[in-house]
Amino acid sequence: HEADAYRTDLMTITRYVLNEQSRNPEARGDLTILLSHIVLGCKFVASAVNKAGLAKLIGLAGETNVQASVPGNNCHLSQFLVSEIEIGEEQKKLDVLSNEVFVKALVSSGRTCVLVSEEDEEATFVDPALRGKYCVCFDPLDGSSNIDCGVSIGTIFGIYMIKDKENVTLEDVLQPGKNMVAAGYCMYGSSCTLVLSTGNGVNGFTLDPSLGEFILTHPDIKIPKKGKIYSVNEGNAKNWDEPTAKFVEKCKFPKDGSSPKSLRYIGSMVADVHRTLLYGGVFLYPADKKSPNGKLRYTLSLLSASHFAYGTSNFILINNSEFTKSWNYSVLYEVFPMSFLMEQAGGQSFTGKERALDLVPTKIHERSPIFLGSFEDVEEIKGLYAAQA
Ligand code: AHM
Ligand code: MG
To answer: Which of 96, 127, 240, 329 could bridge across to 334 with cysteines, CB 3.0–4.6 Å?
Structure first.
């Protein structure tokens, strides 16, 4: 009977968010509307990603794009998005296209005032006539270098509320992650899954392509207290700091008689974090210690790379005239949303110095190391950093 109920009494994401809204007597439905526009953006990107191999959406500029449609969604906004972006336009790379879709969906929701996107160097201040009380930080298509080989990719978003609608500033998004009111990601994989928290636990919804709706499939996700998996780019091991090196050594050669952990690393943050959330374990992208031979190598790349610092995962920093390579994650649209979800699911997230959600960013594209996952595994990492200090 339960299976029947599951099949016939569908908990769509909109129904879920409306239920949540009704629990708060002061809620006016703004977050519900905003989320439905984010959901539409995710459906659009899901559809475009699915067609990428066929339609050559990722092809070079200059070729004319094929028209993509949004399955099961005939509302005006989706038609507007499709016509606005795709018909007759030259092909755009999927990450650029996704960014445009999300910016337009967010602005037209009438519920946003500041947008920060990985794709845009500057924050977008929404036209006063269309302003609402929310700020959205997002990476429209993270891991886009994985598209060509069909590896899962995703959209990540975090939502803040502004302080004063009449006086909107960058300070509204330069807040610690613990002030976020909602966060989530959508993974475009073997299925399309949207994981969301509005500060009351974490829920996962899977897109039913035949309905064009996200249906609740993973209610109240809780991450296991301890996991059997560690997830890290081991190719960077030579530059790890000591606590990271010690932790990974312990994963592989435990001295307490426990079994070694398995290594899983997809190289696509949304997919790696999704697995960590469901199966437990820890995902880490540590700081690099200064590479003594790095100076010459990075001097050359700095000249050009400094111009492309935003919108790519490699960010070159000048530090006391020495060059430090940093591939860490963006605080606003990667570290905070994922940390928010982890904590809401009973796990934790740490930067190597502090609780990730306590970090106060000073610029919109600030980056940070990250260690997140099962509570006990992250506790162990925190212990190693504390011992070093
Ligand atoms: P992108 O922001 O350029 O799309 O790349 C970000 C991706 C993340 O999804 C992934 O976790 C990371 O880069 C992998 O980094 P690395 O290849 O250094 O392991
Ligand atoms: Mg990214």
So the answer is: 329
